[in-house]
Amino acid sequence: MTIDTGSKGERVKRLQRSINKRLRARSADHRQVEVDGVFGRSTRAAMVTAAYLLGADKAVYEGMRRGTINTEEVEFVRHPGRRSQAELNRGKRRVAAYRKARAKAREELEQAIARRKEIVKLAEQAAANYRKNPGAYHYLAGGTANLVFLRPTPSHYRSDCSQFVAAVYHDAGVDSPAAPLPHQWASTYSMVKSPHARVIARDQRKPGDCGMYGSKEAPYHVELWCGDKFIGHGSPPIDSLTPGQPDYYLTFDFLH
Length: 256
Prior knowledge:
Blueprint: H1 10-25, H2 41-54, H3 58-63, H4 71-78, H5 85-132, H6 161-171, H7 188-193, E1 197-200, E2 210-214, E3 219-225, E4 230-232, E5 248-252
Helix pairs in contact: 1-2
C-alpha cells in the first residue's frame, strides 16, 4: 500500500490515527493532525516527526518528506513494536532530547510572559502615580540622562517618550529597546534601528510591544501597548490615553 499527497480514504485515516498515537506517547501531541482521511502537507510533516521520534534512520524520515510513502514506511509508524534494537535506541535518545527541548521552550515562554506582564505592571503604576500629582511632572526631550519614571524628576532631567519606554524596560529587567545602546540613551530612531527590533502588524502585537508614530526613517513618538490601552510619555507627560493608532509596531527578540 502506497500513499502520496492527495491520497484519501480509510487507509489514510488509519495512518493519521497511528501518527497521532505515536506523537502523543512522545510528548509531541501539539503536532497531531486532524483525522480527515486526506494525506496533505500537515499529515506528511506529522509523519516525519513521528518517524524521527520512533528512531527511523535519517534516510528513511528524510525520504518521507517528499514523494510516495511506501508500505514499509507506513508500517513503521503503524507498528512500532517491529522496530530493530538500533531504531529503539535511537528513538529513546531522540525522545529524551525532544522532551528536554520542549521543557526549555516552555520555561522560556513563561519567562517571556512574565517579562511582558512586568512591563505592563510598571507602566500602569507610572500612569497611576502621574494621575495623583500631574503638575509635578514635565516633558523634556533633552537634559540629563536618567531612568526615573515612577516619580517626578528635576526639571533639567530628560523626560520624554523614549526615555519612559526605556526606563520601564530597564526596571522590568529586559534589554534596552535601543540595544546595543544602553537604556538611558534610547531614542525612537535608535529603537527602530536596533538589530533586536522587528516591525510587526497590529494583529501580532502583544502587551509590552511598542506602538511607533511617524515613518521608519523618522519616528517621532513611542507608546507601550498594554493589552487594552497605550501608556506613554507625551503631553500630558505620563498618561494612559490613546493618542491615535500607531503607524506601526515594534517588538524585540528579548521579549520572545
